[in-house]
Target: Metal ABC transporter substrate-binding protein
Amino acid sequence: MNLKRLTLTLALALAGLPSLSFATQVLTTLPVTHSLASALLEGTKVQLKRAAPANLPASRQPSYFSGRGGASLHKAAQQADAVIGVRSIWRDDPLYPMARRSNIRIVEIDAARPVDGALPGIAVSGDEAYGAYPWLNPTNFGRMADVVANDLERLAPGDKAQIQGNLAGLKRQLLELSASSQTRLAKVDNLTVVSLSERLGYLASGLNLDMVEQPLPAEWDATALKALGDNLKAQDVALVLDHRQPEAAVAEVIKASGAKLVVVESDPEDAFAGLKASVDQVVAALGES
Model:
């Protein structure tokens, strides 16, 4: 085989391979943005990559990218077309600013509020709403899916139909989740709840539960414990929510008041599966109260 024929054969062989170097690449760092992107990009040619370890808390990401994670982000950003973050509700979200240093052309997708205002953002209270986990409200989660899908469709127009189909499937599941939870809650007499976590207010409001205000002290001393018990009894609270197991003294006060304690996992790796599990957990507990 002469050189000309060898070159032609090699060219034809390579033509049949996917051009990975030209595939659209997207970076994420947060469980909620990665889960949304994973669901929306299933079955597409878009490459999704985590720019930080999955178990790295959001609060540690700025220092991570300023230190030992800087080199890996620099390398990933040079190949990426876009990043998905939430700077509109978390001012210190480092992903886009840090990635832009390595790639001036990189596109920012804000999952909570479109950068270009093409769609309405999620409903939140205050500018720094990330710590309150607003996506635990099913309506907000669905709106975030709309926002991310809209930008991904424009970023990868060849995959638009697949992204739209994935979005429709996700929205259908959210609708079914909301409908079934409201049907079950309609049979419950007492929907009064207290949250001992700053993360679960949107979950409770998204389920249309009756939230009772409860001050969260720096320390659960005897005075704070008595105030909690008095509030739970006076308001006839059925359910107390927290994202972690409270100390034994707090749990004892909750039990003595007649309320039920539910510990919700607020940071699952799969945000949508976690949302469904949390909703079911809360609704089931209220149904048993």
In short: Residues 87 and 93 are 5 Å apart (CA to CA). The chain has two domains: 22-179, 188-288. The beta strands are 25-28, 47-50, 82-85, 107-110, 192-195, 210-211, 239-242, 260-263.
